[in-house]
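Archive entry. Fields below.
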Amino acid sequence: MKKHLVESKAAYLINSNVGKINNSMKKVLFIAQVFFIAFLVSCLEFDNSIGVTTSADLRPADGSVLPNEIMPGDTLLLRRGMSFALLGALRIPEGSVLQIEPGVTISAAGGQPPSLFIVIESGAKILAEGTDDEPIVFTASDETPGAWGGLIIAGKAPINIGNTAIAEIGDVVYGGQDPNDNSGVLNYVRVEYTGSSINSEREHNGITLYGVGNGTKIDFVEAFFGADDGIEIFGGTVDLSHVVCVGSQDDQFDFVQGWTGNVSFLYIQQVDDPTYVQDRGIEGDNLSSDNEAIPFSNPSIQNVTLVGFSSADNEINADPDAIRIREGAKGNFNNILVRNYPGSVMDVRSLVTLENLGNDELVFSEVFFEGITTSPFFMLDNGEPNLDTDLLNNVENKLNNAISSEQTTGAGFELWRGNFARLP
Ligand SMILES: [Ca+2]
Ligand SMILES: [Ca+2]
Ligand SMILES: [Ca+2]
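PREDICTED_STRUCTURE:
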């Protein structure tokens, strides 16, 4: 029965260069945005705007525009239930804190999207602690993917592209030698309509974690309808739990550069519309320039539900694997429920990654495929014409044994969805 579940392929598939949707509403929304800004400007207290240095100024009034930067050592406190506008790049420098109380909404508007984001720099903290009924929402007045740059957190935990590196976005230094580094707390936080692009190589994600350490607490977070990845993790050791990624136009959950944290309870839902461009549910790499760079990306990813698409038409515009692991990544994937993916479903490629599978350094277990009639469930793609036959047989056996005959529990999303999570 199981012999058809895995198929090998000697050549790489061509990775389609995915175009992004143009938003036909953009001009109309821009006009609305101009009026929105005019309204904000008429309401705001200007002494809260830029260059604040006093404690009074660091508790901006409801309806204010957020400052562009705060001084090292200061805490910017956004008080319960208030709303704020973000009109540029807000930088929280080393030694400073962005503290956000439950029910706060931050709405990005008006700026040039490439420089419209929030960055928590290495050595700074964000303390964003919402509740299920009063989540903290980062959104955009232009309610469309790509409206702004999202939330970026940089830390000092190990990465494998060097001791430190410069982030794709914001020229932020990240990485270091402190696996226990603490960048703060995200609890009941939703980030919406992110993903603006700087150029074709550099795009903002919903939540981007650069070398973030495992002193950081991330629990109950969502990325909703972004133009690039929902959550992207560049190295580090941070753990996440109760994660929701919905409607990202690139990957829903993406890791690279030696991430060694855990994620438990991960719910991914892609858009069931063949005209909506989107890529993979989970994409995991070690490092493209050196598949054996250390530390290896080696996360533990467990209790996951991935909901894909009903139509194979999605193949026209996107590359919609449920999970693609490559470029030397290791990892432990357990209790994975995969629903409705018409493509290759699970794609494992690159010679080092296949060797990791053979050595049990990349492990899949309790994987259940639901509503999927296309074969194969697993696609092996080594990129070389002569893969060792013993290795191939070995990994095929392992993957076939990973497939559960009974439905797995996956993320158990309905048990913890509560009120904070937003679905389309
Ligand atoms: Ca990305
Ligand atoms: Ca990606
Ligand atoms: Ca990636």
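CURATOR_NOTE: The first helix runs from residue 26 to 43.
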